[in-house]
Design brief:
The chain is α+β, with helices and mostly antiparallel strands and 221 residues long. The chain is built from four helices and ten strands. Helix 2 packs across helix 4. The chain binds zinc ion.
């Protein structure tokens, strides 16, 4: 079976269970190689937002600048795939990006008289649709008098480039008693809803196979 047939016939995907974080779908009559390609793409082939570059304006915490930037990068961000472009596919084609491919988030802890934790809810985004999936992710602990002030730039990326862009935390394929049926379970980081990951994953596998076919036909010519 061609993956295209599989795409046209989404009835071969049956949702067994779903909630806000996790979805399980039954794949019927889908060859193992396609099912496994879909599993991998759901894990690291669907674009999501993550902080990519950080301008450190002030950092008097005990955490070095690199450590701070790394932690900021790992915060999962809500992603609206319909609104934003991946930088490589954006019309602006500029290194600095535009409002369709880049979002700025700023954080200024201010000064404090007591020791306190800076949490993800202190990041304020210029775009309401791109913000941390949780308010309670610790970023750094500040002692009295210490302060961080940063400007972060988030963009769409894929987990194949860096794990901070993984769309899913878990993506597994399990066999069932029936030989022609497998169960794909995907748990989202929260950036996308689990259904979106599956739909984008299906499109992505279709696109990649299309590109591959094109390459092969060029070689043949
Ligand atoms: Zn752009």
């Amino acid at each position: 079976m061609d993956f295209k047939d599989f795409l046209q016939d989404l009835s071969s995907l049956e949702v067994i269970s779903k909630d806000n974080q996790k979805i399980a779908i039954k794949l019927k009559d889908v060859p193992l190689q396609y099912a496994n390609a879909l599993r991998r793409v759901c894990l690291n082939g669907v674009p999501v937002f993550a902080i990519d570059t950080v301008d450190i304006i002030e950092n008097t915490s005990v955490l070095p600048d690199e450590g701070l930037a790394h932690r900021l990068g790992l915060i999962p961000l809500k992603t609206d795939l319909a609104r934003f472009n991946e930088p490589s596919k954006c019309e602006c084609q500029s290194e600095s990006g535009c409002s369709n491919c880049k979002v700025m988030l700023v954080l200024d802890s201010g000064d404090s008289d007591v020791t306190r934790s800076v949490l993800s809810n202190e990041l304020s985004s210029e775009d309401d649709s791109v913000k941390p999936t949780s308010d309670k992710i610790p970023i750094v602990q500040l002692a009295p008098g210490q302060r961080i002030k940063v400007e972060c730039y988030a963009r769409l990326g894929r987990g194949t480039e860096h794990a901070k862009w993984n769309a899913a935390t878990i993506s597994t394929l399990t066999e069932t008693e029936k030989g022609d049926e497998r169960v794909l379970t995907v748990e989202s980081t929260g950036a996308l809803n689990p259904e979106q990951i599956i739909i984008s994953g299906v499109n992505e596998v279709g696109n990649r196979l299309g590109e591959f076919k094109e390459m092969i036909s060029q070689i043949e010519e």
